[in-house]
Fold:
Amino acid sequence: MSLKDKLTALRQQGLADIEQATDLKAVNEIRVHLLGKKGPITEVLRGMRDLEASERPVVGAFANEVRDDLTTAVANRRETLENAALNARLAKEALDVTLPGTPVAKGEPHVIQQIIDQIEDLFLGMGYQVLSGPEVEEDKYNFEMMNLPKDHPARDMQDTFYITKEILMRTQTSPMQARTLEKHDFSQGPLKMISPGVVYRRDTDDPTHSHQFHQVEGLVIDKHVTMADLKGTLQVLAHELFGDKFDVRLRPSYFPFTEPSVEADITCFNCGGKGCSVCKQTGWIEVLGAGMVHPNVLKMAGVDPDVYGGFAFGVGPDRFAMLKYGVDDIRNFYLNDVRFLTQFTKKG
Amino acid sequence: MKISYNWIKNYLDLDVSATDLAEKIERTSVEVDSVVQPSAGLKKIVVGHVLSVKAHPDSDHLHICQVDVGDEEPSQIVCGAPNIAEGQNVIVALPGSRIADNVKIKRSKMRGVESAGMICALQEIGFPEDVVPKAYVDGIYVLPADAQPGAPVFDLLGMNDSLIDLDVTPNRGDMLSLNGTLRDLAAIYDQPVQLDVPEVKAEGPAVADQLTLHVDEALAPQYRMRLVRNLKIAPSPMWLQIRLWNAGMRPINNVVDVTNYVMLKYGQPLHAFDYDKFDGQDVYVRAAQADEKLTTLDENDHDLDPQDIVIADAKAPIALAGVMGGLSTAITDQTTTVAIESAVFDRTHIRKAAQRHNLHTDASQRFERGVNQAGVQDAADAAAQLFTELAGGEVQAGTVVGSNNQPDPAIIKLTLTRVNQVLGTLLSLDQVTHILDTLGFAVETADDEMTVTVPIRRNDIHIPADLLEEIARIYGYDKLPATLPTGRMTQGRLTPAQRLVRATRHSLEGLGLNQAISYALTTEDKAKMFLTHPDSQVTKLAWPMSVDHAVLRMNLVTGLLDDIAYNTARKVKDVALYEQGRVFYREDGQERPAEEEHIAGAVTGTLLPKAWNHPAQPVDFYQLKGIVEAYLQDMAVNGDVTFEANPQMKEMHPGRTADILIHGHKIGFMGQIHPTVAKAFKIGATMVFDLNLQAIIDMPKRANQYDVISRYPAITRDIAMLVDENVTNDQIMAVINRRGGAYLQSTKLFDVYAGDNVPAGKKSLAYTLTYQDKTATLVDDAVNQAFEKVTKRLESDLGAEIR
Structure:
């Protein structure tokens, strides 16, 4: 058998062996066997000494070709087997992606806080300041400067927790109106403020009453502030909190610190204004009280009511939250059942 | 006040339904609580004439009645009412009828006897018990003799009406009457209204010779009486009874009913005295004396207060003025002579008296809000006229007047410019004057200025702003444009303190705590726990509603523990809460407490619930400490945060409590609550912290800063050591940090161990020290040198045995 025939047979056999190797170890053994220093190709090349000089380059080139073919075949086979092994391993690593994610510690803002923040952000954007005052107030600021002198019948409307004759738990955040009006320098610009906070009333706790709740008071005083501005402002508030579909209507009411005084209703959530049991068939739900600041309130705070005037409104975030989410018991807000607190998770 | 739609329609030409009218009232005048049609939902209830009554053979109280219900044959109806009698006209619910509360009446058998329907009491067809005439409260109602058998009863009883219940605000006393409501509606619907004018035919001798009044004018600015003799007390005619019960008042007799009717119509409360029961002819209106007593019409005894106004005869008080009459001079069936009082009492006195005696009557409600001071005589006249018409009375000539101080009408100047400027409207002078005119206000104009004379009956209108409200509401709030304030720009932004408070909340939420809002009013015991101002005095409410909410809190922790208790009781075991709010500290001798913002947290159970891939880890001291540290890092307070063991707080675990200090100033504490406290709250092991948020707000803050990240590699060395068990991490860290050399970047504790393999009284700690040079590659030698130095100091300073 000529050397060339030997090489041809070697190649044929080698390629067949490589093709049949089923694991990397076998491939490696074949490689060492065929292409190693003691392998048959090396041996064939050694036999070249016996060839004629003219044949040597031809056979040498052929031998190299065979070696390259086998080397490539080994590499290909190895890659194929490696890929198969990797795929097999990855297949084994497959997860049930429907298993729950690992819990993370995550806290939620209180639903009332969310509403207060939303109101604050709205009014900040319209150039209002946010001011907070003492929760333990003087009778003077809570009532007298709000045009509620000691014997005023409207004092019966809000039962008060007194501490002493002159000191009380504020029943409204309106005292900040008086406190701010007293200090505001109108030469520096109009007064536009909201005042959020906790207020207290002498009430027995039940599903619709709480001795502690929240209020956001708003006040704008300038030279030309109109009742139309109040209406527009309340409309913006309703749209922000409930959505653009909601409309606002005003109805006459009575508060000692505003004149004219109004209650504001918004479109009923439940029926969208068609009339249902929630809104007593009216299509409207009462949400807040407002009005044009009473001249006496301005006068008592040292502001000239002939020059300055404006509006005030008082919003109850508790009531808003109850309406917005259908919360049926106001006490939920203060008992802090975790199952309640973690329901309001929507951000933004 | 419930006002009748039919009654209103007697005076105004209204082409609107009762519900539409009610809506209009609500949009323009006062709130409407409800609109109720008494006959709504009822059917097949007719007049029946009782032909015969005989006892039921198998019952001691049932009767078998033959009743003419307008059919050819009489119906047999079994009736249990004690007052059923032959010849009566009664209310019959026919088979297939529907009575109150949607109850259906069927043909039935009662103890074996067929009954074709039911003879009804007023309550059974929807009348509230307290308006049913006394004679019929415990039995069936008897209809007038001229009622037609078979005719529906609804018209006879005034039930085909709509009753609009007005929720009148304190300023609109004028709306507590038909006349006042009519005047408002006249303006709303822009219609003239003609109110009734009373006409009295006086026959008898002058009242002045029979009565003398002595009135304290400060207490009763107006006080007058008429006298009517030879009255015959009887039930009122149906029309009058209907007016009363539809207004929610019980008909009593023709005299009392007339006074109530006049009050409903004119808004002026009247009182009818039995003149013959007066001791003498002198009547006094005065303050009560301290030891005086009065039994009122409702048969309750009252100890009078010197602030009460009383009507008295020569001997004793006979009425609590403006609130309720006295029993001794009450109208009875034997009364023949009636003194009618029509007066105006001081509002504040009446309000206080009604509160003091817990007697809120229709009269006091009206006097508190102020009655029409120009209508006092009209009301007395109207009553006198009706006494003649309904009770055959003989009106005595004239009226005795004890006081007569009518206020002057308010005269208010207002410019059109002002109207449009405040309302944001473009109204014309004609539009505005027309509105005022329809309200019955007299207007004189000069250019743009109006001079408005307000009728005395509108005692709520004093200043231009009051007129603006009238104009706005009658014009219609719906027609107001909706705009936003213009004028100079203002900057809206949160203060640094407000931003920090928000950041506090966001930080703690990010760290896994839910925001709680607890009650700030608590018990004295709870207020005094977990005090960070140990000398603070409690602040108590003067009149708390309940013992649970009687004192202002002086800490936030107990509120959170209450919350945890609430959750625990409901089997919610893992609770992680924080609260931001005020605590109230009061120094001895101060009236008013100082308010301090605090931030507190409480965690029980586990922060991360057990899941399929990891076990539950009960919250421990270090977990909460991690939260506090991360929070304080977020706040960027300038200064080292340190934790010092505090075994002294009695509500806290003595070995698991730390004071929290910033730059050496204590700002709060954290740790595990004492097991006895946990037990008292009925909760499990709980970790808490409470920080003075105001102090954090006030402290100087670090600004964020960029630090170059070194391009050169860091070298780490681990060190493990045995130390006495009372040596703290802080002590070791102090030595390492002080002696670590210039290249020491950070030191991290990675293991703490005590127990097997560690000698008793010792513990093992292990740290990783990281060295780095920001400007060059560190050489091992430099690190080895520095590490050796630290090792030696630990051995010498803390007796550490390096392992």
